[in-house]
Each structure stands twice: as C-alpha cells, then as structure tokens.
Amino acid sequence: MSNNYNDMWRSLGVNLEAHDQLLQALPPTYHDVYLTQTNRPKSMEYFDFVVNEIHGLRIQELQEHKKNGGKVIGAFCVFVPEEIVRAAGGICIGLCSGIDIGAAEAEQVLPRSICPLIKSFMGFKLAKVCPYFESCDMVVGETTCDGKKKAFEILNDYVPVHVMETPQMKKSRDKQLWLEEVQDFAELAQKTTGTEITDVSLAQAIQEVNGKRQALRRLSNLRKNNPVPISGKDSLLIEQIAMYDDVARFTAKVNELCDELEQKISTGAGVFPGRTPRVIVTGTPMAIPNWKVPHIIETSGAVIVAEEMCTGLRYFENEVAEADGLDSMLENIAARYLGINCAVFTPNTGRLEQLENLVRDYHADGVIHCTLSFCDPYAVEANRVEKMMKQKEIPFLKIETGYDQEDAGQLKTRVEAFIEMLR
Ligand code: SF4
Ligand code: SF4
Fold it and tell me: Transmembrane segments in this chain: where (predicted)?
C-alpha cells in the first residue's frame, strides 16, 4: 500500500512511524502465507485487494461517512449486534487485535501475562497504529471474559467505551438481561448517531446482515466437497474481512466467489488432492492478521474444512429471524446473538454438539483445538472438547499459542505428527 494516505492517517492522529513498521511487516507475511498458494480461485483477487488496501480505501470510506455526519462504532466481539448500528445509520467495524503490536505500551497498563488479543487491542490504541481504532466514535465492549471486561475500564481513558453485559448462562433470566442490554444498546446507538431506528431501517439492516451471513454459509457449505474448492487460509481471510468490509460489496464478492467455486466443483477440481486429510479448527477467534496455525496446518499436508470459531461459523451460522415491529425485531436480535456458543458460557454444550455435527457434515478426519495463551475460557473448555472427541473416537490435537513465531517450529512438528496419524 502506498504512503499516499499519509495525510489521512496524520489527520486521524495515527503515529506514522509505528504505523510504517506495521505496514512493512504485513506484505512479506501476506506473500508467504497467501500468495504462494497454488490453484487459488480467481475471485480471491478482491480479497487480496482489500488486504492490500487495509488501511487505505476502507479508511477513506469511513472518513467520507464521517464527513457526511455518520458515526463509526468499533467492536471486539461477535456479540455486538451489527444490525443495530446499521439501522442507526452507523458503520460497525470489528477491530482486529490479531498482531503483537504496541506490546510495550500495553504492558504499562496491563499485566504481561494476559491474552494476546487483549494486549493487542490495548497496544493498538496506546501506540496509535490503527486507523480503524482512530476512526471510532465509540467502542463497544462486553463482559464475556474477565480480562476483556477489566481492560475496557482502562481503554475508556482513551476512547468512549460502552460495555454490554453478556450473561454467563442461558437461562430465562439471562435471556431477559441480554434483551435489556440489546434494547439499551439500541437507545445508545441512536443517541450516538443522532439517527432514529425505525421499523424500516432495522428490518433492512437485518436483511443486509443476514445476506452477508447467508453468503458466508454458502461458501462454508461448498467446503464440504471433496476435493475442497478453497483453502482454509483463504476462507479464514474472508471471514476476517467480513468484520470490517462494506456489507453489500462484501456479500456480492463472496457470492461471486461461490459461483466460481461451484463451477470448479462441477469439473471435479479442487485446491488440494482429494485424499488430503481434512481438519476442523476450533477455539479462540483468529483475528486478522493471525494466520499462524492455519498456515502451519496447510503447509503440513492437511486442509482446513471449517472453523468452529468466531472468525468462522459462530459468526454466520445463525440468522436474525425477520419480524414486524421494532420490539419483535430487537427480541429476535437478542435471541440470535445469545445462540453463539462462546466458551464464556456455562454449560456450553451447544459447542460440543455443534462440533460433533461439523465433523460429520464436513467429512473431517480430525479436530485441532487452538487456544490463545492465557485464554482461560477456551483453555479449560478444551478438556470437555477432548473428552467428547475421545468418546466419539475423533482424532484430536490441542494447541496453545500466542501471536509470536517463537514456537512455530515446535508446533509444526506436532501438527505434522498429527496429520501423519490421520493418514
Ligand atoms: S470467543 Fe467469545 S468473547 Fe471472543 S469474540 Fe467470540 S463470542 Fe466474543
Ligand atoms: S481470547 Fe479468551 S481471554 Fe482473550 S479476549 Fe477472548 S475470551 Fe478473553
């Protein structure tokens, strides 16, 4: 990406020197992870372009929106209802937190031993390296895990943060609490943007976001084929871009890609030979540009056929049911989001059931559970997943890792041994 955007970044208060370091690190990594793949679908050009312009064109679009009086609202969790932000005329951006940047700054306010995702978002803000973050009028946090919940108190010193209380269980009183949180958020979104949410605007936003989720599901379903028409790395990239790209354009591009893949499938073509071991990855989300484990898996002889993660199926598996009237729509939004099987819930049996179904539906040979270091909810829940996998005799590998590359060699050895066993 060119530095023609320097004026825009400067006007946002981005630290240009630190930002340059980030931009220099991205292209070589992207080249090695993505552009060295063979048989890539032609339609991936759009997604390559989006990454190439990651801090350029999309940021320019956000600035245009703001110039016209629009607001940008950032989020770190798939529990934040994008439909509400859109219905209030705002743009919802998933803030990435997938790279080790600004760690020194973050460690001035956070303990050293904390989940890299939390350290990353704090580092991004304190080091002022993310033009998305700097474009946000408000950030929405949630009480999913303790580390995030407490970090939002600190983050609030630097950007207005609204925290939604996500319940820990899914009983009827939890459903009521969450519904009230969703209703409060709708009030706040209207206050922040100055635009009233109407029946029409909310119904439209629900349809648009459902359309995005349908396109992603269509793509996901195509991965059930053997040979697989698209790599897991490319699929993950698309799932990551879903968090911040323009909804209508992104949906159209994913559908275009699916058209191409359907064509490919009809000729029996795929990206890996038909006998390649098929793996499902489950665990903590992999925010852009965290491609470390998928890259190791797909350069060790296996293909990833599904991601049971928030950068994956948890983001698009359920839709908001359409309804008449604001109240019913908000109820349906609350119900849809509470259906997400995040490890912060107890019990979280829905995730186990889902995994078992996925192994069957995606014809997977094994499951790799990937937890970010210091992420207690997923690290502890891995025990339940492992137990179920043993009972069902599904080959299983458990990995715990951060954003640095120090353990890449060791991980590769373990993944290769697992894939060898699958064969
Ligand atoms: S894993 Fe849980 S906390 Fe993290 S993004 Fe998903 S729903 Fe939110
Ligand atoms: S990865 Fe785990 S510890 Fe980190 S923010 Fe998500 S739930 Fe919390």
Answer: none
The ligand 1 atom nearest the CA atom of 340: 7
Q: Is 284 in the pocket of ligand 2 (CB under 6 A)?
A: yes
The predicted pLDDT at position 2 comes to 56
Give the mean pLDDT per block of 10 residues along the chain (423 residues).
Answer: 83 93 86 95 97 94 97 97 98 91 93 94 95 97 96 97 98 98 98 98 98 98 98 98 97 98 96 96 96 97 98 97 97 98 97 97 98 97 98 98 94 98 94
**Two tokens at 145?**
């895990």
CB neighbour class for 323 (10 Å; exposed up to 12, middle 13-18, buried from 19): middle
Minimal-distance CA residue to ligand 1 atom 4: 77
Residue nearest to atom 2 of ligand 2 (CA): 375
Domain definitions of the chain by residue range: 3-29+68-203
CB distance 119 to ligand 2 below 6 Å: no
The C-alpha atoms of residue 262 and residue 73 are separated, in whole angstroms, by: 36
CATH topology of domain 3-29+68-203: Rossmann fold (3.40.50)
Looking from the CA of residue 145, the nearest atom of ligand 1 is 3
